């Protein structure tokens, strides 16, 4: 499945914008999910670094004309193989398009290239007391374009919403090279179809984003955080559910189970207690203490052992660092074990205690380590299943456990992925979640906008009997 | 352009679910926008009242098969002819599908039929301290389905967002009768294309919504409101801009100019001062007085003449009633004058003073009454132009003024409609706003999902040279 990419030489690209070197191709064939499982994608035939919208347009038009797949790539921090080329072709690396194009603090808006790192947006606007609330935990290494591709979200989503809620307008390039602008600078619009939110979360299968207009929020005057330690995981999850339904207005409310805490301690040298915990942060302009008191009261109803708020910035930074790096801590825990499918499921908050309980129960039943953590207030759970890749029996049990939890999330009215996308890893769950009619509707849109299946083929949609790419049969 | 609808007799519908009576057809050929301008739509050939999803599916499948247009209809409160049949056929009246299907207060969620009146949702959940924040000013007469069709918004959007932000999942029927479910009960998802937000705002041209899962919010503990009176409209709009960019956290911030106030007094017998005003409401769980003080300080910087907060419920109810009924007050003001195009434009908040100033300046220049009001905090402006429908010269000047403001909104980075949709009235502005590429992308989606142009033909998209409906040529 190699594709002739020599046409790139005829485009108006500088020498350093194209590479066919093995090292470059290999580095663009993995992401954080696939590299753990050694099921790397097919190597791209070439890597291209566009520096302007016109570059993206030229590459897409020419690639579509020649039937060459194009897979957008940036930081490579996805977990489901979203940006890993499944059919070779071109890896379109957008990291050089990382400019702040325009910044309008009075309107709480910033226009950025897709390659900008999330935390660089925060840094750019911090001086005006603004911030970009929906950054994921990987915000200091992931790009805005990648976050848009998967409709990412993070610790503050429980209060502020997901990436889609903060993208006002896009410039994007369609498969045939057409440049479109969606949305406007008005904070609301009813004008025509909402192409912005169709492109957000489409994982580069419908268009390549070349510029995004993001909304910003004013930094709250009062920010306080801390942790609550419980005796049982059931108490912790019930407390979270109760706090959310009581509308305590928390800005972060993260579950960390005892096993995850142990792994964090191993990895970071921290000294978190080996107990179920909830990490908290409250944002307010007034009355943050009253919010904390309300939360404490609710947590006490659920038998919280310790409820510790901190005014120490360094202490809080260390707490949040531990939470942010849990995914790495899980990976590093045991060199003989690898975390299977480190993505997430998300359920209605009322179902959160059940999905967490089942994940742990199944781990016990199958004698597997299942560290559980996540953005609890969203009903989001990351449950990695650790397994020895050289032990087929253990792998099979781990796969079974993993599937049972995804299926349970669906039974409970949830989604198979709250924030990491379908990519390659969760394609078989698309139809169980949405039903045949909705999936066929998605396919119809894909076929209409990208009839040659140029853009990121082999993602989102389950395999079809007659092969996935329309034009692969030709090769 | 009459369509043979006798096939309806073969469907499993009761006698009282179908009517071809003139009175019924006529009542389904107007909305609040068209009835003022006597440019009523084409009469539908039949009106159908579905009572369940299967009815909608059967009607759409049969109509698509026979090339008969279907235009969804409900309360008829649109302003742009959105639900007025442009090509005859069937008016699909969804008002009987008005059930609360399920209510999950612990998850802040309610599932409703599209025909339910907005305020009935609020009434249903009020006992649990919940409410549905994005209701438009017509929330006590408009249906949820209609709000979804135009992605409506209202006075509280400045704080809580628009309808799209509160729709979690949909059941909808495609043109061929396929029933699809979009979204999930999880509060976030990255699973597949966002069909929910594609359908929201598509004005019934892509699918007919048969059930919606709405998110709810907890009612704030502190609600206080009042009004600020300014000497000049410029002061009022600059004060709003300053308050928004200072992030005062206001829940309602509405502009009412002196002319609108006079019209409200005439219509309601109220005694609002004949001066530019800003109506305000603050929602908080703590510190509402501090929020009010911050806003007062900012307004004082802009020379506010009076800043009057009220604790009197009846007084506040009367204030908000005046604001809500402004559209009717403008219509009723002078029997010889009619408001031309009563929709809205919306601009970035920094451009709000300019768009309001220009609307008034052009009114003076052309000797036309231009009452200005709107959801100022969103940058939203309703500027009706009053004109004598029997005076062609005045009508032409009024049309010119109306167009100039829409075009100015676009120049300022705004949208031609923040909350009422394109319908029939604003089709010529779709391409100036979005560009040819984005409009063609919208058309491609429409053609892919509804190849026979069954669903609400003649809306959103500008006329094409070869006629708008694919199959009209057959007749």
Set out the fold topology:
Two copies of one chain form a homodimer.
Chain A: E1 18-19, H1 22-27, H2 34-37, E2 46-48, H3 53-66, E3 70-73, E4 90-93, E5 100-104, E6 109-112, H4 118-125, E7 130-131, H5 144-150, H6 157-160, E8 167-173, E9 179-183, H7 195-199, E10 208-215, E11 217-218, E12 222-229, H8 233-245, E13 252-256, H9 258-268, E14 277-284, H10 288-301, E15 306-310, H11 313-324, H12 326-332, E16 338-340, E17 344-346, H13 352-365, E18 372-374, E19 380-383, E20 385-387, H14 392-411, H15 430-449
Parallel strand pairs in A: 2-4, 3-4
Antiparallel strand pairs in A: 1-2, 5-6, 6-10, 7-11, 8-9, 8-10, 12-14, 12-15, 13-14, 13-18, 16-20, 17-19, 18-19
Helix pairs in contact in A: 8-10, 8-13, 9-12, 13-14
Quick structural gist:
The structure is a homodimer. Chain A has about 475 residues and is α+β, with helices and mostly antiparallel strands.
Strand order within the widest sheet of chain A? 15-12-14-13-18-19-17
CATH class of the largest domain in chain A: Alpha Beta
Which structural category fits the helices and strands of chain A? alpha+beta
N- to C-terminal distance of chain A:
7 Å
Which architecture of the largest domain in chain A per CATH? 3-Layer(aba) Sandwich
Overall number of structural domains of chain A: 4
Largest sheet descriptor of chain A: 7 strands, antiparallel
In round numbers, the mean pLDDT of chain A is 94
Strand content of chain A: 15-25%
The CATH fourth-level homologous superfamily of the largest domain in chain A: FAD-linked oxidases, C-terminal domain
3D shape of chain A: globular
Rg calc of chain A: 22 Å
What is the CATH topology classification name of the largest domain in chain A? Vanillyl-alcohol Oxidase, Chain A, domain 3
Assembly type = homodimer
The counted number of beta strands of chain A is 20
What ranges of chain A have pLDDT less than 50 throughout 5 or more consecutive residues?
470-475
Count of helices of chain A? 15
Biggest interface pair, counts: A-B, 89 and 89 residues
Helix content of chain A: 25-40%
């Amino acid at each position: 499945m190699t594709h002739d990419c020599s046409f790139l030489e005829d485009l108006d690209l500088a020498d350093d914008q194209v590479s066919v070197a093995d090292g470059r191709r290999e580095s663009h064939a993995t992401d954080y999910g696939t590299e753990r499982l050694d099921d790397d994608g097919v190597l791209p035939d070439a890597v291209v670094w566009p520096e302007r919208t016109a570059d993206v347009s030229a590459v897409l038009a020419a690639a579509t004309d020649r039937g060459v797949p194009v897979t957008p790539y940036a930081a490579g921090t996805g977990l489901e193989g979203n940006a890993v080329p499944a059919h070779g072709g071109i890896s379109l690396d957008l990291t050089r398009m990382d400019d702040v194009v325009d910044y309008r603090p009075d309107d709480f808006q910033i226009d950025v290239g897709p390659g900008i790192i999330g935390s660089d947006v925060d840094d750019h606007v911090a001086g005006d007391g603004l911030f970009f609330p929906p950054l994921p935990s990987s915000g200091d290494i992931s790009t805005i374009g990648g976050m848009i591709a998967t409709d990412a979200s993070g610790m503050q989503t429980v209060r502020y919403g997901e990436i889609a809620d903060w993208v006002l307008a896009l410039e994007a390039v369609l498969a045939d090279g057409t440049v479109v602008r969606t949305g406007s600078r008005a904070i609301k619009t009813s004008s025509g179809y909402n192409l912005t939110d169709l492109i957000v979360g489409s994982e580069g299968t419908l268009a390549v984003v070349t510029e995004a207009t993001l909304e910003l929020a004013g930094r709250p005057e009062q920010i306080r955080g801390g942790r609550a330690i419980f005796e049982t995981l059931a108490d912790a999850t019930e407390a979270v559910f109760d706090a959310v339904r009581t509308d305590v207005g928390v800005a972060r409310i993260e579950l960390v189970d005892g096993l995850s805490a142990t792994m964090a301690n191993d990895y970071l040298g921290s000294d978190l207690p080996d107990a179920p915990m909830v990490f908290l942060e409250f944002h307010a302009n007034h009355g943050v203490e009253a919010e904390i008191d309300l939360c404490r009261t609710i947590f006490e109803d659920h038998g919280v052992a310790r409820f510790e708020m901190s005014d120490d910035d360094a202490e809080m930074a260390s707490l949040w660092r531990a939470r942010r790096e849990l995914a790495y801590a899980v990976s590093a825990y045991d060199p003989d074990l690898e975390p299977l499918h480190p993505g997430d499921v998300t359920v209605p908050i009322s179902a959160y205690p059940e999905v967490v309980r089942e994940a742990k129960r199944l781990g016990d039943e199958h004698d597997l380590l299942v560290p559980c953590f996540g953005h609890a207030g969203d009903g989001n759970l990351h449950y990695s299943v650790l397994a020895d890749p050289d032990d087929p029996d253990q792998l099979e049990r781990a796969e079974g456990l993993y599937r049972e939890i995804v299926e349970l999330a669906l039974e409970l009215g949830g989604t198979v992925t709250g924030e990491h996308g379908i990519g390659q890893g969760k394609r078989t769950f698309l139809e169980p979640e949405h039903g045949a009619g909705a999936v066929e509707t998605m396919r119809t849109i894909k076929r209409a906008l990208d009839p040659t299946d140029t853009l990121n083929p082999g993602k989102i949609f389950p395999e079809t009997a007659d092969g996935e790419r329309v034009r692969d049969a030709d090769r």
